[in-house]
Design brief:
Elements (H helix, E strand, L loop, with lengths): L4 H18 L4 H17 L5 H23 L17 E6 L11 E9 L2 E7 L9 E8 L2 E6 L1
Helix pairs in contact: 1-2, 2-3
Length: 149
């Protein structure tokens, strides 16, 4: 059986439909590679089956590598992620009693908003007086766990 240009086009469209169903943004590059081979086979009808497979493989790999290396946005926003608060320095507005005591909570204020707020309820493993500079050690739900700097 001879592979014709439209076979590659059908394969490309099938892979593109699979991409729409899976949303992986990985299969699309194999689909584009198949479409490219279909176009190449239109221009060069005598292209051997081995050359077609090699062209499809090379085109798919090159487009996948280019996507991951250059075109994919790596500067994702970190808004809303707790990691951005780790290590931030703030000043205690109210004293903290250790976890497990009656009050157990304090409040820390930052110079710039952290995760959308300048003031956060906080916890600590040790008593810390108001006005002390503290460092965010962890984010535990709605509370920041802080320690002395």
């Amino acid at each position: 059986m001879q592979i014709l240009w439209w076979h590659w086009m059908v394969l490309g469209m099938g892979l593109a439909l699979a991409e729409l169903a899976l949303f992986s943004f990985f299969i699309i590059w194999f689909a584009v590679g198949a479409l490219l081979v279909g176009v190449a086979l239109l221009a060069l009808p005598g292209l051997s089956f081995t050359a077609q497979i090699l062209l499809w493989t090379a085109a798919s790999i090159v487009m996948t590598v280019l996507w991951f290396k250059f075109f994919r946005h790596v500067n994702k926003t970190r808004s809303g992620q707790a990691d951005e608060a780790l290590g931030e320095i703030g000043v205690l507005v109210s004293a903290i009693e250790p976890v497990g005591s009656a009050s157990g909570r304090g409040e820390v204020r930052f110079q710039k908003p952290i995760m959308g707020a300048e003031r956060w309820a906080c916890l600590a493993d040790e008593p810390i007086a108001a006005g002390t500079r503290v460092k965010v050690l962890a984010v535990d739900g709605q509370f920041l766990k802080v320690g002395k700097t």
